[in-house]
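Extended Data, panel c. Modelled sequence:
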Amino acid sequence: MHPSERHNQAIDWGRLAPLRLRAKSVADGVFAGVHRSRRHGPGVEFGGHRAYVPGDDLRWIDRHALMRHDQLLVRLFETETDRGVHMLLDATASMSFRGAHADSAKVAFAALIVAALTRVVLSAGDPVSLGWISGVGSRPVAPSASGDAFDRIVQALEGLQATGDAMHDLRAFDRVIQSIARRARRGACVILLSDLLDLPDGAAERFAALGSQGRRLVVVQVLDHEELTLPYTGTVRLASLEGNTVLETNPDVVRERYLEALDQWTERFVQPLANRAGRWLRVDTQQDPVDVVIRVLHAIAEVPP
């Protein structure tokens, strides 16, 4: 629920435009703020033996097989993990809200986080993809680690309009989840950026199910500071950005119950995620985007493969 005079479904970039430059600046801040460790290659799984041939790496000779069979055998490995990052952005109407003191609408803030994460992930040579929940002009971006992947994701974000109501369309949400399930292999990370306010019943369980087969799950709940504090005084008129609900109330009277209800509603999504060892972050659009991206990267690192 939001003050009705601020109802605006077009992306309000506020002080976050131009996106391309802001995302590069945030990514540079991330590089300066975290220590990147050298990677030690992909996750692998034993895949059998074959006879040794001259030139093979001696590290992979199976000494136990040599003792048992009196012949040189080389251990084979199968690449099992996908270091790709698959991002899913909520572009429903509720994400278009911008409070009086926010730098941008929630969807714009989330878009900046997506773009900056894309730049960071691509710098490590890993593929990135982008999908959507609702939204106008939102075409999915297929996984890619190519040089133009950042530009394609930024273009997709810049052409987005936050609109639509996902609450009553679980089938549409299922299609998005199934698309990610087809693309993301073991070890991939799936990141959902959403306010979690208007997703359909069953969405939490559908998203958490992606945690099977070794995928890593992170949910970034993006909320405006006004949604987190309900700072209004006196009688206010609130209008839903999804649906036609209008409510007059006194925030001083309902604030405590509202904050409890917000936490309870969020918990409906967080609990299935926790059951899959996923991570949940709640962020305020007034926070420094650099800090938010670093928190997301730390969350990814904490999720067991």
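The CA atoms of residues 100 and 226 lie 8 Å apart. This feature is highlighted in the accompanying rendering.
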